[in-house]
Amino acid sequence: MPGENLSRDEARERAALLSVDGYEVSLDVRSAVGEGPGEGEGPRTFRSVTTIRFRCNEPGASAFADLIAPSVTAVSLNGRDLDPGEVFDGARIALEDLAADNELVVDAQCAYSRTGEGLHRFVDPEDGEVYLYTQYEPADARRVFAGFEQPDLKAPFRFEVRAPEDWTVWSNGAGERHDGVWRFAETKPISTYITCVVAGPYHYVTDSYEREFADGTRLEIPLGALCRKGLAKHFDADDVFLVTKQGLDFFHDRFDYPYPFGKYDQAFVPEYNLGAMENPGLVTFREEYIFRGKVTQASYEARANTVLHEMAHMWFGDLVTMRWWDDLWLKESFADFMGAFSLVGATRFTDGWITFANRRKAWAYRADQLPSTHPVTADIRDLQDAKLNFDGITYAKGASVLKQLVAYVGQDAFLEGARRYFKRHAYGNTRLGDLLAVLEETSGRDMGAWARSWLQTAGVNALTPQVLLDAEGRIAELAVVQEAAESHPELRPHRVAVGLYQRSQVGALERYARAEADVQGARTVIAELAGQDAPDLVLVNDDDLTYCKIRFDENSLATLHAHLGALTDPLARALCWSALWNLTRDALLPARDFIDLVLRFADGESDIGVLQMLHAWADSALVHYVAPDRRAEAARALAQGALAELRQAEPGSEHQLAWARFYASTASAPADLEMLKGLLDGAEEIAGLEVDQELRWAFLEPLAAHGAADEKALADELARDDTASGKRHQVRCLAARPSAAVKAQAWAQAVESDTLSNALVEATIAGFDRPAQRELLAPFAPKYFEVIERVWAQRSIQIAMHVVKGLFPAWQDSPETLEAADAWLAAHTDAAPALRRLVLESRDDLARALRGQACDAAAVS
User: In the annotation, is 96 catalytic?
Assistant: First the structure.
């Protein structure tokens, strides 16, 4: 649609011309219930009336407001009625001859969403209830009300909503219902993308937070938590409130700036595209954070981390906001770092840095080696660029860089810099230099060189130890060698800890010496470690202070092959596992060697989050990096190992649950499928293993994928679990069945039709894409390259991303598929840059997989 993809240059021009004094937004969502339009009659719509008061510093100039809507009923500018047919093109409202002070009124019919963008409408299959919520980042508020859709045109907002009588409505400010209309308190100046409305018959729980500050002032924050009525029986709101209060205490202590947005509601909503969104006063989360069955502590830790991540945004992102999406890191990197920092400092999850090192950094390392890698401060040309930049660089690498920054300037200087930053720029917009200025003030260090190396260059360095021993077997010299990829040759300054480990008399592998040093350039000697006894293992970046790929010298790698499980420190183990996985992805370690390490040592892994990450990596190694002619053998070994660990695990433990899920994901042999059937129907039992509804679906998926559970079995299971979650599981299992007709139907539903919601499109693609069904999926490889440009042009960006990423024919892991991707890229140089980026990333993953398979094939069996 013309004008839908706002460019950075357009945003800058508009920000230079306009300033916004306030919005009044009136929505009527009573149309959400009852019969909708018939087939061919267009989308279901709601009325949206927006009044914007704004100033123009060049009277007589022209500008535009943003709105994506099926129709506009009326437009008035400064009391002058405009013809909607002339000024509205489907994405923009042209505004001519602006005055110094202006009032724009837009009366529109906006469309409910089924893609999670704008105002999403969900019908609960369990009871027929309708639920609404909004999701806007980066620029979908324009699907709900007219506005200036860019982060640096902040303004106060007043919302009012007409809704069905039995509904409750929430927004950013506190609300009350009068004469059938919900009216909400005016917000502080905020950006359009963090306004929010949630409406429906939600289950709502309340609490409150109180705090007395050193100056005697008191702060009371009303707390709320809400979810669909069907999930109420599973909702542990008390734990959500506990983490919320712990986080508020932590951030008040560190930031010296009271939470500024009044109430603090947290809504868990269906079919959500993101993990969560930091709307001030009304944070929204995906409802999968309400656990319907037994989960491990890693799941509770992930939820707590997300709660704290979004809370950090109240200061980093909401109170102080980046001017444009180039500086997205100013909110996301900080929130990601602060999520882990507060998790460890304020909650029961004191091992949160292990999860950060093992899980979050793995995301960053992958993203930073893609051809689309970019500096933490990125070049964001337009909104499509912005949509794709919510990636492992902006989140996890940025957070890792901030952890390095804290080591570089000191925690006290870092936090004092944050405090000054909030007070200096409250309710405003900033760029990189604004933050660096306060950090230079508080630390006394030159932040320019640090920023150039860490924020303005891309790529990840590899650090490898070199050990020279003297005649007596002691360390004569220990150096750290730094390398960078040819494409991104920057050698950065690293503050690292180097740990030396030896096996004790009882066999434990423990650290006996440690030195902290600044690594500069290609080779740095760690003088403090000279004279130490010869190590069995040298761990560069011990304690995970910097962001790098860890490599090992030959002796250390041999030690890990023989004694990885003997490492007593859980963070050191997690770092070694992560390094070994990077070696596998880089085709420096055969995939079957990595799988062998998992089978031999994962049973001793105490951290449940690390164990579950190992399971995911082992599965990925099998699917992508094991040589094709050795996959069947490796799959049998993984399934047998998983079943053995499942039987040996402590009954009822979270480790038992993790091994049960991993066993299901690896099962393919007839005996394993029979075992899963037996666990489902009760013919087989494993002491302490409760096969709840979520685990039942986990067992049914491999059965469906291998033809051992038919459509009737899946229908019967849905009858047991006739819920929104059950429907998603059933759709995924149906699409996983090994039938050409099934695959054709799934392809048509995801690609050729727009009848499925975002959640069901995602589930369909997940079921369709079964790597073990390579021959069955082969005909769809050429179809993929034929349709993706059309899909990108015709579908919403969220659905298009699902299709382009999820259906890339990685299952055809052959040079021919690589050539097909290259041919498409060569023939479509003028395709949307964001689309080309997604194809290029998938193509790179495939090339990496082929290199890994070659490495595995060359290894001696």
Answer: no
